[in-house]
Design brief:
4 helices, about 0% strand, mainly alpha, about 140 residues
Length: about 140
């Protein structure tokens, strides 16, 4: 909610579109991302099981692949919606959607940083499982 409340006015100003129009689009894109996240993860995990890979063990390359495929899927779904909703070309909608993604990337970084400062992880809950590995 905080992200949407910050994003909608900024996007409205940058795009020179009405706040209600951009705010409603932001909500639609957010709900689309949440639904896609569930479906995408279900499909991704099912594919891991079919390939005989453990679902709970994901090396860095797999996490990068997972995030990239998810973002590409969201982009494919969102760009036509943005173009139609804001009455713009697919190229401008693509750039607009990249702007939304960058905004939320920065927002997530700042939000999680502030959250960790306000609600720090108790030290005793960190468990050492190896030389340089922690849970």
């Amino acid at each position: 909610m905080i992200g949407l409340a910050a994003c909608a006015p900024l996007a409205s100003w940058v795009l020179d579109k009405g706040l209600a129009q951009v705010g409603a689009l932001s909500i639609v894109l957010s709900l689309t991302a949440m639904l896609l996240n569930y479906v995408f993860n279900l499909i991704f995990d099912t594919m891991l099981v079919r390939l005989g890979r453990p679902v709970n063990v994901r090396p860095t390359w797999m996490r990068v692949l997972h995030a990239t495929l998810f973002e590409a899927s969201l982009l494919i779904l969102a760009v036509p919606v943005v173009a139609w909703w804001l009455d713009m070309t697919l190229w401008i909608a693509f750039l607009t959607d990249i702007g939304f993604a960058l905004f939320f990337l920065i927002y997530a970084f700042v939000y999680n940083w502030v959250y960790d400062v306000v609600f720090p992880m108790p030290v005793q809950s960190v468990v050492r499982v190896g030389k340089d590995r922690f849970l």
